[in-house]
Amino acid sequence: MQHSIKRVVLDVLKLRDPPIAEFALRLCSMPDIEGVKVTLIEIDQNTESVKVIMEGDSVDLDYVQKMMKDYGAVVHSIDEVEVGKRIASD
Amino acid sequence: MELFKSLLTRARLYIQVTHISDIARRYFVKNGMDGSMTVLGIILGAWTAKVEQPNIIVMAGLGACLAMGVSGLFGAYLTEKAERRRQLRTLEQSMLSDLEDSLHQDASEFVPAFAAVVDGLSPALTAVISLIPFMLSIVGLLPIWDSYMISVVLTFITLFALGLYLGQVAKERMWLYGLQMLAAGVIIAIIVFFLGGLEPV
């Protein structure tokens, strides 16, 4: 049985515009995404490092990266991925 | 309708990302004032020379309008294009990656066109307001000498309104900005009056 990604934690470098609220709203408008959390880690003159947590029935990582690129952001690393019917605990 | 809404949302996003609204506001007021003042000069000059054919004033005004509009259109487009290209390169250097096909690249192509439209249309808009009485004269609805008076008053009102808008932008006393703008028009009128020995009929 094919499982899908339920939750990902990403380290993202984005431009300061659009601001993180707008950025989070855009990410949340993606299909099968139920919740997005964007946390500001570091701020620079033109860029922001943010931690992005996305949860949903099926998180399409390729589409996430495409969406990020469209909004002037790049995924530096995929820090956590959770797959399956139940979220695995540590 | 859906397509229009989505285009409007996208345009709003471009404006937000590039912060073009501040620049567009400046372009609008500065060039709007240029349009009003240029036509005021033409009208006062024609009044001094006692021009009785309204079509001459309308054509001279529209010609000046067109020249200002085209100059604004190309000037703003090329200036903004160069600035946005430069800014895009800076952003790419900050990101250490290219921004091809991104919102920022699309915005940097949209913004020069937006600035050009504002820059090109604002002088035409304010100038046409001042020329309306002469257009009415052409169709025989207004005597030419009344057109001069009404046109000068309309131009002063336009300048005052631009000043009020600036006052609103600055969130300060609007009427003070209005009066400052009006003063510019009055100064032009006084200068032409003394230079040409203007005798309103």
Mean pLDDT of chain A: 89
Distance between the termini of chain A: 24 Å
Radius of gyration of chain B: 21 Å
Report the structural category of chain B. mainly alpha
User: Runs of chain B with pLDDT <50, length 5+?
Assistant: none
- Please work out how many helical segments of chain A DSSP would assign: 2
| Share of helix of chain A, binned | 10-25%
Strand content of chain B: under 5%
Helix content of chain B: over 70%
Major sheet description of chain A: 4 strands, antiparallel
Rounded to the nearest angstrom, the radius of gyration of chain A is 13 Å
Question: How many β-strand runs of chain B?
Answer: 0
User: Helix segment count of chain B?
Assistant: 6
Overall mean pLDDT of chain B: 90
Output the structural class of chain A: alpha+beta
Q: Major sheet of chain B: size, sense and barrel closure?
A: none
Low-confidence stretches of chain A: none
Q: How many strand elements of chain A?
A: 4
Assembly category: heterodimer
Kindly summarize this structure in a few lines.
With 90 residues, chain A is of the alpha+beta class. Chain A is built from two helices and four strands; from the N terminus they run E-H-E-E-H-E. A four-stranded antiparallel β-sheet of chain A has the order 2-3-1-4, covered by helices on one side.
Structure report:
The complex is a heterodimer of chains A (90) and B (201). Chain A starts with a strand and ends in a 7-residue tail after the last strand. Helices cover 21% and strands 48% of the residues of chain A. In chain A, β2 and β3 form a beta hairpin. Chain A is an alpha+beta fold. With 201 residues, chain B is an all-alpha fold. In chain B, 87% of the residues lie in helices and 0% in strands. Chain B contains 6 helices and no strands. Chain B has helices at residues 2-18, 20-48, 54-95, 103-138, 144-170, 174-196. The model of chain B has no long low-confidence stretch (mean pLDDT 90). The interface between A and B is medium-sized, with 14 and 15 residues.
